[in-house]
Amino acid sequence: MIGLISATEAGGRARARLADAWPARTRVYEGPVREAFERAFRECEQVVCFLATGAVVRLAAPLLAGKGVDPGVVCVDEGGRFAVALLGGHAGGANALAREAGEVLGAEPVITTATDAVSVPGLDTLGFPVEGDVAGVTRAVLDGEAVALEAELSWPLPALPSNVTPPETEAVPSRERATVRVSDRTHTPSLREVTLRPPSLVVGVGASKGAPVDEVLELVRDSLQGAGLSALCVGQLATVDAKRDEPGIVEAAARLGVPLVTYGAAELAGVDVPNPSGAPLAAVGTPSVAEAAALHGGGELVVPKRKSERADGRPAMATCAVVRRPARGRLAVVGLGPGARDLLTPRARDELRRASVIVGLDQYVDQIRDLLRPGTRVVESGLGAEEERARTAVAEAREGRAVALIGSGDAGVYAMASPALAEAGDDIDVVGVPGVTAALAAGALLGAPLGHDHVSISLSDLHTPWEVIERRVRAAAEADLVVTFYNPRSRGRDWQLPKSLALLAEHRAASTPVGVVRNASRPDESVRLTTLAALDPDSVDMMTVVTVGNTATRAIAGRMVTPRGYRWQGV
Q1: Residues 273-292: pLDDT tens digits?
Q2: Smallest Cα–Cα separation from 379: which of 394, 338, 447?
Q3: Percentage of the chain with pLDDT > 90?
Q4: What tens digit of pLDDT does each residue of 238-259 get?
Q5: Is residue 203 left, alpha or beta, with left meaning phi > 0 and alpha meaning psi from -120 to 50?
Q6: How far apart are CA 405 and CA 81, in angstroms?
Q7: What is the dihedral of CA 166, 193, 234, 68, to 10 degrees?
Q8: Which of 72, 329, 373, 501 could bridge 93 with an S-S bond, Cβ 3.0-4.6 Å?
Q9: CA 33 vs CA 28, 81, 378, 396: distances in Å
Q10: Does a structural domain hold residue 411?
Q11: Cα end-to-end span (Å), the chain
């Protein structure tokens, strides 16, 4: 929850804007400012104050307990010009909150955290729990020292600066270097050393009906401790479907802060385990719950099935087993939109900064190169190498890296998602990031041409036989669909567009509106509204999108409009 505090009428108006924008996330604190701030500080994860920074410093100072527990605090001046991340930039999320508040209020986010200022990922912002001397190692990274990256687990990480390298690549003795370790083994980091804790462990649990949560948790923690494994690396608890609502298991997952996943008894019965038993077979239909659930997705069994121990000597009510799952690379297929920076989605921007490897067409890489973190490796190639880029991106992900494969518009529309997903198996994680397509960008410039059923057709016969394309154009013409033509004409393909327009003309009037948009959202953008009869195919090239209306589409006040129905409202 985000607490909102203001002291003046102007601050109250800005406060109301945030409250209206985030109704489910915010709570307005009224009353004397000091009392309101103290209550918000105690009760909320984050606080936004529409006050002077000096006033908030004085209010917060007596309440500070430590960066791990203090809320993130953002100050917004009464003029709404700046949103200052004052306290808890990383741990409290104030840096991200300042950016979010800035977007709502039109304020400039002011972020002074050193790593953010130079676009280096903070060690506590990589998405994993971190232990150790975060400040000392971060200082070494920022100062350009040789920092050792000791990765016991090949977990996908964002790009790290070039001075963070495996030990064997540096001549500086390891004892003299700051160190970033990636491990799930228990280890107390020393000075100038941090350990990142990826979610590498799956704990399988079984329980009798009514098993107490404390018994389940004690068994899980003892099992991890006995094997020298960190509880921070538990990624999920797993069990059989029959136990999905068992209170002791559900509450144990909640207290550990991990999801509970369940599998059918038949699925678990098919998992080969070292310690099958007749008891769970009779009770829930599988000879193993804990081991089978932990091993379901593959991995190394590091703690075989163990039973809980009860001080009163009564039978154990819980079992558990621990598996180290193999590290999985991550492939994000990212749509960059039509070209304008403000049409690049926030999610796409986040994925670009999360990746350690970017794969894409050279001209698309140039569009976003300034957004990449220092140390990001770029693999770029020219037109015609789409399948090679897809194979490269998948291969990089299979090596355990975080990869972003980029394309223009939406990566799933005539772009890189199809060849990449055809190449990718279930051995990597794949994330699709939607983007603004060329058809949508052009449609917004033309008016509302896509107001009713519509279809997109590529006129490029490089990968699709013309006979197939022509059949689709005929079908769209007969079905009276609005048609957007992608790849309409090039120097080597100059007859396909006139042929397609002729096919549409068999079913539509010569006066049917046609929109022609070139380089939508880019500096040399051009937009023309013409008709089916008047369109000159020679004015169209590969950077152009052509949208042909249906029989109901009209030109109104210079805009192309297709009604939502075949009757206008009120007619």
Answers
A1: 999 988 888 888 899 999 99
A2: 394
A3: 56
A4: 999 999 999 999 999 999 999 9
A5: beta
A6: 36
A7: -140
A8: 72
A9: 12, 21, 50, 53
A10: yes
A11: 49
Distance CA(277)–CA(263), nearest Å, equals: 18
Beta bridge partners of 527: 517
Tell me the CATH number at 289. Answer: 3.30.420.180
* Tokens found for residue 195: 């350990």
Tokens of 10: 């102007």
Residue ending a domain, choose from 371, 404, 436: 436
Contact predicate 204/239, CB 8 Å: yes
- What is the residue range of 35's domain? 2-112
Beta-strand (E) ranges in 11-133? Answer: 26-28, 46-50, 72-76, 82-87, 108-110, 130-132
Residue 180: phi and psi, rounded to 5, are -110, 120
Residues 484 and 427 grouped into a single domain: no
CA angle, residues 260, 266, 271, in degrees to nearest 5: 80
pLDDT digits (tens, 9 = 90+) for 452-480: 999 999 999 888 999 999 999 999 999 99
Question: Which amino acid type is present at position 334?
Answer: V
* CA dist., res. 22 & res. 6, Å (int): 16
